[in-house]
Amino acid sequence: MLKDDAPPVQTTIVHKIDHFVVKELGPANWVLLEHPSDLYDASKWNGKLAAESLLNTDYVSELEKKEDGSQQIKWLKSQAAQEIPSVQTWVNLSRALSISPPAKRPIPLKVRVNTTYNPPSKK
């Protein structure tokens, strides 16, 4: 298939925010959550809060024993120190799918790509 004959491509990008900061508990199921003001900062925000949770005493002690541990600690501290503009939003938790505390150890990254191609029908 030649490039000029290729069908148009539609791309959808979903910005997933894995980490929120609970600022206030409201009545019933409502909570005030802090999150990035710009969804394009979602990956930076997720990295910042993940790094903050990994800078716990147990994990840092474990890293200090590794050869490149000081570099990893330095990198985690730089990620945690990022300044990311945020806003606060009231959210009804009865609509939430799952809530869990932040990870104390790194979570393996998973990459998932969903693609759909419908070739033109042959006549």
Summary, kept brief:
The chain is an alpha+beta fold. 27% of the residues lie in helices and 15% in strands. A three-stranded antiparallel β-sheet has the order 1-2-3, with no helix packed on it.
Description:
- The protein is α+β, with helices and mostly antiparallel strands.
- It is built from 3 helices and 3 strands.
- It has a domain of 80 residues.
- Helix content is 27%, strand content 15%.
- Strands 1-2-3 form a 3-stranded antiparallel sheet, with no helix packed on it.
- The mean pLDDT is 80.
| Uncertain stretches | none
Radius of gyration: 20 Å
Cα(first) to Cα(last) distance is 17 Å
- What does the oligomeric state look like here? single chain
Strand order of the largest sheet: 1-2-3
Shape label: extended
Helix coverage percent = 25-40%
Count of extended strands: 3
- SSE succession: EEHHHE
Alpha-beta classification: alpha+beta
In percent, how much strand structure appears in the residues? Answer: 15-25%
Number of helices: 3
The main β sheet shows up as: 3 strands, antiparallel
Average pLDDT number: 80
